[in-house]
Design brief:
Number of domains: 3
Strand order of the largest sheet: 12-15-14-13-16-17
CATH superfamily of the largest domain: HUPs
Radius of gyration: 22 Å
Shape: globular
Helix content: 10-25%
CATH class of the largest domain: Alpha Beta
CATH topology of the largest domain: Rossmann fold
Order of helices and strands: EHEHEHHEEEHEHHEEEEEEEEEE
CATH architecture of the largest domain: 3-Layer(aba) Sandwich
Structural class: alpha/beta
């Protein structure tokens, strides 16, 4: 009987290389697949696609597996980047990695793998999958510092039934040690950060190529105009750096007059940006949120009124909350304690212990009532 075939998404990094290595050692027939998802201005100055392709091919050679590259740039632009621009135009702050996983890495990639005759696909994500009573659960990775279940929360039962996560029970130092001992040249390669199609390029300059700049009034908490913003799309809730106010002479001697400014709200209708002074200003906290376009790993929402933990941004500790489903397919959360910088456009992801239940995109945050 021939060994089952698994196609591994190989990005050029150490995680996916070790994933391929572990599967090869486990007896699978492994095919490494490099996905090119971006072509615009891919000249090497900011994007590392060419270097990553070379690293992925070299890793596949060391592991001893078949390797090919596939271009998903058209699918990415249509399914991920177009939505990214729509969200910024609407004044929200999206996370394209969430849609990239759901639409490209576990949909277009999976379809391609099936066409190659594969039974399964695998990636180097720090997450786990478990079958229980014929249903599949998405689990946190053992390495709490690297857990990526937050970005995978929109995966479906059909997708999870075909996915392997070889790094589920490993921590990053173990992965690097395995790579070093196996002679993989990328064993010490720095982890990639940021949005894949932006790379290290200046974010504002990149956005300005695709969306028109629309300056408008910058207001303080009382509605007084204190400056001008350069365009709502360049700011996010809780942002401190790059606001452009600095110290204002007229604020000296006033309560909070020496504290830094933070972005507290964006109003698309009036094209206004509200800023407040101090990290702990009450306008920066929320008692709850409403999310839209929910996606549940089990195929249905958790019980109405149940208690859960939620992350409203990556690397955040779980915040206890109460869940309420809404008739439109969205949901409402009430936090046990007010949460800082709840940002429309980001994902609110629910957990029951180690199990990731799913989540949705934050539509509105409900302001907390706190003493100043």
């Amino acid at each position: 009987m021939s060994a089952p075939t698994v196609v591994v998404g190989m990005s050029g990094g150490v995680d996916s290389a070790v994933a391929a290595l572990l599967l090869k050692r486990a007896g699978y027939r492994v095919i490494g697949l490099f996905m090119k998802n971006w072509e615009d201005d891919d000249d090497g100055e900011y994007c590392s696609t060419r270097e990553d392709l070379v690293d992925a091919a070299a890793a596949a050679d060391v592991v001893g597996v078949e390797f090919e590259a596939v271009n998903f740039a058209a699918e990415y632009k249509d399914r991920v980047f177009a939505e990214f621009l729509r969200e910024y135009s609407a004044g929200r702050t999206p996370n394209p990695d969430v849609l990239c996983n759901a639409e490209i890495k576990f949909r277009a990639f999976l379809d391609h793998a099936v066409a190659l005759g594969a039974e399964r696909i695998a990636t180097g994500h720090y997450a786990g999958v478990r079958e229980r009573d014929g249903r599949y659960e998405l689990l946190r990775g053992r390495d709490a510092a690297k857990d990526q279940s937050y970005f995978l929360h929109r995966l479906t039962q059909a997708q999870l039934s075909r996915v392997l996560f070889p790094l589920a029970d490993l921590e990053k130092p173990q992965v690097r040690r395995i790579a070093l001992e196996a002679g993989l040249g990328n064993h010490a390669k720095k982890d990639s950060t940021g949005i894949c199609f932006i790379g290290e390029r200046p974010f504002r300059a990149f956005l300005n190529r695709y969306l028109p700049r629309a300056p408008g009034p910058m207001l303080d908490e009382s509605g007084r105009r204190i400056g001008e913003h350069i365009g709502l799309m360049y700011y996010t809730i809780g942002q401190r750096k790059g606001i452009g106010l600095g110290g204002r002479r007229e604020d000296r001697g006033l309560p909070g007059g020496g504290a830094p400014w933070f972005v507290a709200a964006k109003d698309v209708a009036s094209n206004s940006l509200t800023v407040v002074r101090g990290h702990d200003h009450p306008r920066l906290y929320a008692d709850g949120l409403v999310a839209r376009d929910a996606s549940w790993v089990a195929g249905h929402p958790p019980p109405h009124g149940c208690a859960a933990g939620v992350k409203t941004r990556y690397r955040q500790a779980d915040a206890p909350c109460r869940f309420e489903s809404l008739p439109d397919g969205g949901f409402r959360l009430a936090f046990a304690t007010p949460q800082w910088s709840v940002t429309p456009g980001q994902s609110a992801v629910l957990y029951d212990g180690e199990v990731c239940l799913g989540g949705g995109f934050i539509d509105t945050a409900q302001s907390a009532v706190r003493a100043a």
